Amino acid sequence: MQLETITQILQIDNFKVKSIISNTDNVFRFYLERINNIILPLCSGCGKAHLKKHSTQTVEVEDLPICGKRVFLVFEKIKLVCSEDGSIRVEELAWLRGNITKRFAECVSRLTAITTNQEAGWFLGLDDEKIYRIDKSILEEKAKELLDPLPEVKNLSVDEVAWQKWHKYVTNVVDVDQRLVIWNHKDRGKEVLLKFYKKLGIKKCAEIESVAMDGASGFITATQESVPQALLVFDNYHLKAKLNEAIDQVRKDELRKARADNNKELKDLVSCGERWLLLKNSNLSEGQQDRLSKLLGLNENIAKAKILKDDFLSIYKEEHDYEKKETMLNTWIETARTSGFEPFKELAETVQRKFQLIMNYFKKKISSAISEGINNKIKRLKRMAYGYRDIDYFLLKIHQHCGRLNPRLST
User: Fold this and answer.
1) Distance of CA 21 to the CA centre of its chain
2) 155-235+367-410: CATH, from 3.40.50.150, 3.40.50.2300, 3.40.30.10, 3.30.420.10
3) Of 114, 203, 337, 351, whose CB neighbour count within 10 A is largest?
4) Tens of pLDDT along 175-194?
5) Helix and strand tally (H, E) in the chain?
6) Does the pTM exceed 0.70?
7) What percentage of the chain exceeds 90 in pLDDT?
């Protein structure tokens, strides 16, 4: 009765538990035998059933744990002669994947979706290399099923993220509506994005309504060539980041002057630790608000830079029609150019060059904020794994954590 119960728990087609080889503190080892020897084995080469058997070999495979113990299954695997090419092949069993069961492999894959390979290996008693091989092979299979062909999309966000030092990047294309990575590729630039549009196809490209990006010329050119009907939007997230860089550079310049003049009061207010007084757009505490007011009263240049920043942000915050916002942005460009602050003059030139792309945001308010959020997830993924040497595996892991390979989407 005990062996019958274990057989029912395992539920392996055409096999039953004949005996328990060992039962230690950490491991169960069961010996399996075939229930029906009349069933012809399937050839692992051609996938057909063959009558001519060559020999058998004893194999041991790992299955899902039972009661906290690792489970190993020992059985006779048939070698047969393939009638297609005469080669000797081992039989193909639907429940096996190499030297582990398919359900155990799926468990490994699900576990690596929520933790590192190292931690998953520790939990299951496997080395990192085996976890890597299992996880990659499963992700490759799922990628063939779920990532190709590409889905129909209307609104896209394109961005790149570094995966190694020395300017090694990965380009990610995100479906803004679904908030998922739908395609990625090693490197960045025009040629990389053209590969995406080519794979997407002419028909699906024609359905794209808008594309948000950081203003990289290669991405812009590729999009204009492949989806000329799409509205190109210069992402305001990157623009606001450049705005913060400009005002922070003014702060640094004023800090150098304060040190040269030995102005301790001003030095304290423009020190690196106080930079958030100028970088934060809201949610200042009462103490921070008091220090900011004091700083603006002490230093005229920082006060002017703060006004420039606030005026720019007001273009996005205030409710005005398109023409009014266009006028406001032109006015800001002229004010920044004549401000005397080199960082703001440079920013004004950038805004002038990307003027239409910036204004397109007010026609369709999409941004690559979702891409930035995904980039943060990717960076966290990379840190947890202490980096990736295999770029193909890294691309698959991005899909697993941020795309359509995420196991949570199927539950």
Assistant:
1) 45
2) 3.30.420.10
3) 351
4) 999 999 999 999 999 999 99
5) 17, 13
6) yes
7) 62
